[in-house]
UniProtKB/TrEMBL annotation:
Topology versus the membrane: Multi-pass membrane protein
InterPro entries given in the database record: H+-coupled_symporters, MFS, MFS_dom, MFS_trans_sf
Superkingdom of origin: Bacteria
Protein name (database record): MFS transporter
Native source species: Kribbella turkmenica
Assigned GO CC terms: plasma membrane
Entry keyword set: Cell membrane, Membrane, Symport, Transmembrane, Transmembrane helix, Transport
Subcellular locations according to the entry: Cell membrane
Boundaries of every Major facilitator superfamily (MFS) profile domain copy: 15-424
A GO term, aspect molecular function: symporter activity
Key word Membrane present: yes
Residue spans crossing the bilayer: 52-75, 87-108, 120-142, 154-179, 185-207, 240-261, 273-294, 306-325, 331-354, 375-396, 402-420
Spans annotated as Disordered: 427-446
Length: 446
């Protein structure tokens, strides 16, 4: 086994806390826009046509996803060439600045068309930052973890994204209740500013971390890849296609839940916004528990059966969940329906993130994972709320978004069932060659 692939020591609490807190902050900051989209539409766009303003606000939600692959390319290259820690510190600093920008921008009434232009710039910066965050944290923790605990540890920091999303919903809910008359005027800005401040705490924690043992070993053995992006596509084309399939479902489902469903519950079902946010916050926290459990289970039974079960569940449960929502079942029905939607999404998160790490060679891991994760989010995640709202507008059916999610889940299920190898023991020594062997190509991992 080469020095670059020796099993690193188990991660310390400091690594897990810094990775988890950073992930929490990044996804709190990124998704709080989705929970505030109704107010954003009224503040930053002309008020003459509320439907057009709402669609425009959803479109700006999607703009951030266009920047995510660019951020993936940029931060992935930094992470593979200059170190995982440096890339993660830069990503969270950019998120802090761009989130603060959303919170302090002047309104459309104050500066006219410049307001939505600046909003787009802020969202692009948020998306650029997010492109290097999630897969970067997974890489960082994975490279500290022992082989038999990788699913647990990677899932553990990954589900902090769901905690961040849930906390964003709870924060918006809390301030809307605390300032019922002032919220639409100015108090809606406070959650954005708080997110920026907490991001600086995440930056401090990350700067105190050491580089990963795997990256230090690559440096010591002169195996740092100078062209990680090019080699990621050359070495891992098939793996990237598999990631695209799995994360396409996750992108559509996740951002339909985050960016569209609260607005749908209010606009189409007539549920109070506070109730919709309460449901979103609670179910995201439930999803975090599910994702962590599935990561732990995947360490025992393998990643492949967990991922397949998640996609099969999504294909079966999505339409019934929307039927419950559309029936106006109230708070209890809304909770049940969103848990049915969140559970497959969270399971993919818990099992597919360590799978992604195990599929990639160490020298290009950050770049390959960042591209494989963020490209489907650009295509499907950013457009999910807009497409969902558009489908309902065109068809007049509240079930049309559910059909869309189901179709994507079925396509992903077919691809994953046919081609995803089992990876949870990848990295252990091959007794014949003494090397860690790629599950798809049989080539020794650098």
């Amino acid at each position: 086994m080469s020095s670059a692939t020796k099993v690193p020591p188990s991660p310390t609490k400091r690594v897990l806390v810094a990775g988890g807190v950073g992930n929490f902050v990044e996804w709190y900051d990124f998704t709080i826009y989705g929970f505030s989209v109704g107010i954003v539409a009224s503040v930053y766009f002309p008020k003459g046509n509320p439907t057009a303003a709402l669609l425009a606000a959803f479109a700006v939600y999607g703009v951030a996803f266009a920047a995510r692959p660019l951020g993936a390319l940029f931060f992935g290259s930094i992470g593979d060439r200059l170190g995982r820690r440096n890339a993660l510190a830069a990503a969270i600093l950019l998120m802090a600045i761009s989130t603060a920008m959303v919170g302090i921008l002047p309104t459309y009434n104050s500066i006219g068309v410049v307001a939505p232009v600046l909003l787009v710039i802020a969202r692009l910066a948020q998306g650029f930052s997010a492109g290097g965050e999630f897969s970067g944290v997974a890489t960082f923790v994975f490279e500290h973890a022992s082989p038999r605990r990788r699913g647990t540890w990677v899932a553990g920091v990954s589900v902090f994204a769901l905690v961040g999303m849930g906390s964003a919903a709870v924060t918006v809910l809390a301030f809307s209740l605390a300032y019922p008359t002032e919220y639409k005027a100015w108090a809606w800005r406070i959650p954005f500013i708080l997110g920026a401040l907490v991001a600086l705490v995440g930056l401090y924690l990350r700067l105190r971390l050491d580089e990963t043992p795997v990256f230090r070993a690559l440096e010591a053995s002169n195996q740092i890849n100078k062209t990680p992006l090019r080699d990621a596509f050359r070495m891992h084309g098939r793996e990237l296609c598999l990631l695209f399939c799995a994360f396409s479902y996750q992108a559509v489902a996740g951002h339909s839940i985050i960016g569209y469903l609260p607005t749908y519950l209010h606009e189409q079902v007539g549920m109070k916004t506070t109730t919709a946010l309460m449901i979103a916050g609670f179910t995201m926290l439930v999803g975090a528990a599910i994702g962590l459990s599935m990561g732990r289970i995947s360490d025992t039974v393998g990643r492949r059966p967990v991922v397949i079960a998640a996609l099969a569940s999504a294909a079966v449960l999505t339409i019934p969940a929307f039927l419950i929502i559309h029936a106006g079942a109230g708070l209890a029905g809304g909770v049940v329906a969103e848990i049915l939607l969140v559970a497959p999404f969270a399971t993919i998160l818990g099992a597919m993130m360590p799978t992604m790490m195990e599929l990639m060679s160490p020298a290009v891991r950050y770049s390959a994972a960042a591209v494989g994760y963020n490209l489907p989010y650009m295509i499907f995640g950013g457009s999910a709320p807009f497409v969902a709202a558009l489908l309902v507008s065109w068809t007049g059916s509240g079930l049309s978004p559910a059909i869309y999610i189901t179709v994507v889940a079925v396509v992903a299920l077919v691809a994953i069932t046919a081609w995803l190898p089992e990876t949870h023991r990848v990295g252990e020594t091959n007794p014949d060659t003494g090397s860690a062997v790629s599950p798809l190509h049989g080539d020794a991992v650098p």
